[in-house]
Prior knowledge:
Elements: H1 6-16, E1 24-25, E2 36-37, H2 44-57, H3 64-80, H4 84-97, H5 102-114, H6 118-131, H7 137-148, H8 152-164, H9 170-183, H10 185-196, H11 206-213, H12 218-224, H13 234-252, H14 256-267, H15 275-301
Helix pairs in contact: 1-3, 2-3, 3-4, 4-5, 5-6, 5-7, 6-7, 7-8, 8-9, 9-10, 9-11, 10-11, 13-14, 13-15, 14-15
Amino acid sequence: MKIKSVWLSLMLSGALLSGCASTSVEPQGASPQLLLATPRQADPQLEVSVAKITELLHSGKMEAEEQSKLFYERAIRYDALGLRTLARLDFNQAMHLQPAEANVFNFMGIYATQASDFDKAYESFDAVLELDPEYNYAYLNRGIASYYGGRTDLAVIDFTTFYQLDKQDAYRVVWLYLAEQALDPVSAKSNLQQRVALLDSNDWATGLAKFYLGEIDEGQLLQSARRGLTKKGEMGERMCEAYFYLGKQARIDGEPSRAINLYKLALATNVYEFVEHRYALLEMRQIAEDAIEEARKAQESMPQEPQA
């Protein structure tokens, strides 16, 4: 699922959808059910666009507003290419030149969430909504920050607001379920069942919600990714989503090693601008942190040898 912004959707819709075609194979040594899409390759159009914007930035003096927009445009291209350090530098430049820009705050909040700098993320998304109360995706992004930052109750509030704006969006249903499940699994499953009834059964993403509901299994979800493909690279996008959400279920089921393997498969798609790709690595870090904490507690609980 893409994290949308006004400028991003307008300027990148053509370029991002023209990525490398994906094919499905079975990874060596993996379960026969697992599919692996060809990783997305760097889009030459984006690379050329970066070069042209760089040339414009070096061409001479311009107004701060125009320069800020160019830094922003180059940043979102860097982001789509997976060059997130360069993107963050450009977002910082854009913010310095034009501080009151909701799109820039949105991306800075996303990057802060990826870095587990949750206080900065909350501040950034609060700023987005102050600057533009109609910036609906700020509720999703702030909800994700709250979810990973351990403020699950606040995440549910933001995800609920985001869901109410479009009850036929399966991704909104899924994220709201994940947050509710962390608080009350039984109630979350009941709510999920009611929400799934409103979704389009022909939409690929509805399968993700049905998987959590238990109406389809992992194999059926992955097989459904092959059906109804309409554009180049769509298989890779679906695999990125599927493996991320399968990884989430593996974590819920207490299978951290399996979850890590699934997150690695999501990352291998190179669909950098998708929510699922952005947070797969954060999921893996949290699993590692949990393991370290469990080991520490186990060590502390061991009986100490009496000192001589």
